[in-house]
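Quick note —
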Amino acid sequence: MNTPDEECPFCGAIGTDRATATLRTVYAINDRYPVTEGHSLIIPFRHTPDFFTMNSDERTDAFELAEWLREKLLSDDPSVVGLNLGMNCGQAAGQTIMHAHIHLIPRRGGDVLDPRGGVRGVIPEKMKY
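Predicted structure written out below.
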């Protein structure tokens, strides 16, 4: 899984101007279909299917880049008061691009009526408990 996949849009983004930040084994891009303004994806350069196939260096770098992006968001936009960090691993979990990636989604007060449950909303009837 070390070679780029010619069909993969994330492999195709490597070396283009889409990257907003890079750190050793990973890079970030703006999500093309953002949930909120500032929604980013953190992606390993190496083509690998999901978070569980990322190696320890990629995971470490991904979380370090997430921290850097978080600080940038908070300093650039005072309306950001929370974040969702998430991964979809496998088609049944909603993954549509089979190249590992982590979503960093900025949240603003009032962006939804009731944010309780957060990521539990992947199964809407389980969101409220």
